[in-house]
Specification:
It is built from seven helices and no strands. It has 200 residues and is mainly alpha-helical. The longest helix has 44 residues.
Length: 200
Amino acid sequence: MTDMSGAQPPAPAAAKLRPASLTELFLSLTWIALQGFGGVLAIVQREMVERRKWLTPEEFVEDWAVAQIMPGPNVVNLSLMIGDRWFGLRGALVAVTAMLAVPLLVVLLLALAYAHIGSNPHVASALRGMGAVAAGLITATGLKLMGALGRHPLGGALLAAFGIATFIGIAVLRWPLAWVLLGLGGLSCVITWCRIEVRA
């Protein structure tokens, strides 16, 4: 349907949901944690954005960036932020517990099993294969989330430049991650802030 000028009305924004209760938050995050063998980013993105719709793609990219620069596991940081956003301090505590409690028991059991069969060459080969799958999951998720950067104030060219510079710094030059985060991350934040101020 069009207005009198013939222009198409803007498409409605995708509906965003929220956890109905602390119990749902706990069970959902525990399920995410139990799926996160190696490629946790892909699991978190699919569950929180596509399946449960707790976050939009843009919110996920922004929150994940914040979670990465905070100390501790990225997915735990993200879960803590989501729990706090919906339920305050109680939600944050429930989220952290959900991400750590049951998975800790599973890891302990797996560690006991690995102590007995870890020297088996077939087990070692299987684990190397799983590493390749995890790398593929992370790459696929990164490509899927690129669309969420379309409206970023930096623009496509600068975003690509920062991405390439980050890859070169970490993978080629072997710079410490902290230097890359403080240097390139800080620079990108400053440029983004300046562009937002100019637009305002």
